[in-house]
Q: What sequence folds into this?
């Protein structure tokens, strides 16, 4: 009955009581998740993200694993569209100039204001990659 009356939504919406809700009327404020569920969600999200990046950038799949890991980390945080705005970084990655890409990625609001420690760590990892 509940499934029939509530209906299913895979995205968060506001119910008639103006509460954030998902699934079959589950109020978001009451949701709890186990570490295992969160890890499963992360794996699924990263798998989807990998396909998006591979479809968008010819250089992505053949790149060294560390490059893919850094790009996935960035794109997971800021989204594929956000990553796509790093046109100079992407140019350097496409041309296997990982040191150039590591410098260029720091020339951004993301690196200066949003998450400077994360940006620096990812930049450092990229700068050490030899092709």
A:
């Amino acid at each position: 009955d509940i499934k029939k009356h509530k209906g299913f939504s895979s995205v968060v919406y506001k119910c008639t009581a103006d509460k954030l809700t998902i699934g079959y009327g589950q109020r978001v404020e009451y949701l709890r998740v186990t570490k295992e569920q969160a890890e499963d969600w992360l794996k699924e999200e990263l798998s989807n993200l990998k396909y998006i990046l591979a479809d968008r950038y010819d250089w992505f799949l053949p790149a060294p694993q560390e490059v893919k890991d850094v790009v996935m980390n960035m794109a997971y945080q800021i989204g594929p569209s956000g990553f796509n705005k790093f046109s100079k970084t992407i140019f350097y990655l496409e041309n296997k100039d990982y040191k150039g890409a590591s410098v260029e990625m720091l020339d951004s609001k993301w690196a200066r204001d949003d998450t400077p420690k994360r940006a620096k760590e990812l930049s450092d990892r990229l700068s050490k990659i030899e092709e």
About this structure: Residues 50 and 72 are 7 Å apart (CA to CA). The first helix runs from residue 2 to 6. The chain is about 60% helix and 10% strand. The mean pLDDT is 94.
